[in-house]
Design brief:
The structure holds 2 protein chains of 2 kinds. In chain A, about 35% of the residues lie in helices and about 20% in strands. Chain A is an alpha/beta fold. Chain A has 2 domains: about 140 residues, 3-Layer(aba) Sandwich (Rossmann fold), CATH 3.40.50; about 160 residues, Rossmann fold, CATH 3.40.50. By secondary structure, chain B is α+β, with helices and mostly antiparallel strands. Chain B has a 4-stranded antiparallel beta sheet with strand order 1-8-7-6. In chain B, strand 4 and strand 5 form a beta hairpin. Classes of the chains: A alpha/beta, B alpha+beta. Chains A and B meet through helix 1, strand 1 and helix 6 of A and helix 2, helix 5, helix 6 and strand 1 of B.
């Protein structure tokens, strides 16, 4: 009996001691990034798991199609023509250095873009606006001959399958944690054979997080932060498992929805939101100045109950993302630093905000 | 020599000390698992889609620290299964040899009920192992009205005819007001000339032609929500472990009822 127990304990010790992280620079055979995964089966075949849990095969151009995958589940790499729904996906293409060469379609009109490369693509006639995300013009989409569609909307999968256009779902049922947010480019890298660029970006963001940690470590006056918004019929927040929850914890502050778990923009009760609002010092709204977040008074007018939360009083602070924030996923290091500077302004003196705007008490006169 | 080894191994597995040791180790291991699982659910979820062996070679291998407790759980459960089989076999053998001479009928049925529960537990574990090792799984398949699809690896076609939303109808949970909490997805299955209508819903899978369809999620979850498009996402499974699992559940329940019934009668008899 004692031999059995010893053997089992020995096996456990070996497995615990023999562990290593999967974040090394070289091509690791298997990498899990939140809900996403990359499994390098051979030089000729990589199987990826997208945000919806579907498995797709990546094969080099000219290689024989693997068995067990429908044509619309096979992607030939490096991908040369991409349609992207989200600003974050476009930013990831920029990180990988393939935006100029590969992006051929987006779901926002030219005037809504702040990324110069995308604007230039529109001017050159290379990038097309294929319709709003909820009303895609499939004729136009087909004309762009995409080899891959990056989308958050699973409802387009059946139609794209009939058109034999592979797509991957880039949103996940559970909000991305800090590591998944930073590593997302690593998931897209094998589609373009740009693993090194993804690793460099990850290291850059990782170093900025280390700097943030060093700067903010040991802060005793715990700032209380909340991120979300109240709309006419619903209240949406970022859950505690989302990257912002982790980041707030990393800078030794309290995220007030730490106990909420689930998808990004998760719905909670109004009472819960208002209760946290009585404790918060800093409030990040989803609304941009364009969608009404111009001042605390303007927010209170949009939803009178919102006026009850502490950050909307003169004691608190409210921050709204600027319009280009959603398209700045390639500047994660700067965004993280900015959030740290907002939470601990004394530690970052003279910091100039680039991605968020602190809302004044009332709208400036004349506006 | 080999016979001696077989006998010694059999005696080793017939030991009640082994049972106690394994149960204690299982408690320790599962306690470790409870700690390791915190915030790491996404590591284990893909096991439902890729199967146990593929999961062990990929997810578990890439994160050995977080999956070590599970790696240990598998041999512990296997040993417990063998231990249970050997102990039950041994007891049944003695029971068969001595039943007419020693045990009254009620006591005999009581003992058999207990052994049935033990055997059912082993079958249950075997059923789950079969499910996780031999199933064919097609995860996260999206279906929208009007665009039928063919089930992979078969000639079976499935079409979504209609989605009947089921909204939250009480008023206790205010945030759920106006939210669709379930859907009745009316499906049409076609295989050659054969046509079958079925309704798929949460916790109401559809079984057809050896395939099982499990609804994963649906949209829209709220009228007037951000994404108005209609679709369902489901998993398709061909699972040979279902039958042994259900047989084991039935056997366990039979054993449990038998135990409760005959224990009562045995006690009554003793009181008299």
């Amino acid at each position: 009996m004692k031999y059995l127990v010893s053997t089992i304990l020995l096996l456990l010790s070996i497995s615990l001691c023999g562990c290593k992280t999967g974040d090394s620079a070289e091509k690791v055979p298997f990498l899990q990034i939140g809900e996403f995964a990359i499994n390098r089966v051979s030089d000729e075949l990589t199987i990826v798991r997208d945000g919806a849990g579907r498995s797709l095969a990546l094969i080099p151009r000219g290689a024989k199609a693997p068995k067990g995958f429908a044509p619309h589940m096979i992607i030939r790499v490096p991908v040369q023509r991409v349609v992207a729904y989200g600003g974050f996906d476009v930013a990831a293409l920029r990180v990988l250095g393939v935006l100029d060469d590969t992006l051929v379609g987006v779901t926002k009109a030219k005037e809504k873009w702040f990324v110069d490369d995308v604007k230039r693509g529109f001017d050159d006639g290379r990038i097309a606006f294929i319709g709003d995300a909820t009303a895609i013009n499939y004729e136009l989409l087909k004309q762009q001959h995409p080899e891959l569609v990056l989308t958050w909307d699973p409802s387009v999968i059946p139609m794209l399958s009939t058109l034999n256009i592979p797509c991957i779902i880039t949103s996940t049922p559970v909000a991305m944690c800090l590591n998944a947010r930073m590593s997302y480019v690593k998931f897209l890298a094998p589609f373009f054979n740009r693993e090194q660029q993804a690793e460099d970006f990850f290291q850059k963001v990782s170093n900025s997080l280390k700097d943030i940690r060093r700067t903010t470590e040991g802060q005793w006056d715990k700032t209380k932060v909340m991120w979300g918004d109240m709309y006419e019929k619903r209240v949406l927040v970022e859950p505690g498992n989302a990257w912002i929850g982790e980041l707030v914890g990393l800078v030794d502050s309290d995220y007030l929805f730490e106990d909420v778990y689930g998808t990004s923009c998760i719905e909670i009760s109004m009472e819960r939101f208002l209760y946290s609002g009585t404790q918060a010092n800093i409030y990040f709204t989803y609304r941009t100045p364009k969608s009404g977040a111009t001042s605390k008074a303007a927010l209170a007018r949009l939803h009178p109950l919102l006026a009850k939360i502490k950050p909307l009083s003169p004691e608190g602070k409210v921050y709204a993302p600027l319009p280009h924030y959603g398209q700045s996923g390639d500047k994660l290091d700067e965004i993280f630093t900015e959030i740290a500077a907002i939470i601990h302004p004394k530690l970052y003196p003279n910091y100039q905000l680039k991605y968020f705007q602190e809302l004044p008490e009332v709208d400036p006169k004349g506006k | 020599m080999p016979i001696q080894l077989v006998v010694r191994t059999y005696q080793f597995f017939c030991s009640i000390k082994l049972t106690v040791t394994l149960l204690l180790l299982l408690v320790a291991d599962l306690s470790l698992g409870y700690i390791c699982l915190q915030g790491k659910v996404s590591l284990f979820q893909p096991m439902n889609e890729v199967g146990l062996s593929q999961w062990l070679l990929t997810y578990a291998r890439s994160q050995p620290l977080d999956s070590a407790w599970f790696l240990l759980l598998l041999p512990l459960l296997s040993l417990l299964g063998i231990n249970t089989l050997c102990c039950t076999g041994e007891k049944l053998y003695h029971l068969v040899r001595s039943q007419h001479t020693r045990l009254p009928a009620n006591r005999l049925w009581l003992t058999l009920s207990i052994h049935l529960m033990h055997l059912a537990m082993v079958l249950l574990l075997a059923g789950y192992l079969t499910s996780y090792t031999l199933s064919t799984i097609y995860p996260s398949i999206t279906l929208t009205p009007g665009l039928p699809l063919t089930v992979p690896g078969s000639s079976l076609q499935v079409e979504l005819l209609e989605m009947q939303m089921i909204p939250y109808s009480r008023n206790r949970l205010i945030p759920f007001l106006g939210r669709n909490i379930d859907v009745n997805a009316h499906l049409l299955f076609k295989d050659g000339k054969e046509q079958v209508h079925a309704t798929l819903a949460m916790n109401r899978p559809v079984h057809i032609h050896g395939f099982s369809f499990f609804l994963q999620r649906f949209n829209p979850t709220r009228a007037g929500g951000m994404s108005p498009s209609q679709y369902i996402i489901f998993d398709i499974r061909r699972d040979p472990g279902v039958l042994p699992t259900f047989i084991a559940m039935g056997a366990f329940l039979t054993g449990l009822f038998g135990y409760l019934f005959f224990r009562h009668r045995t006690r009554k008899r003793l009181e008299l």
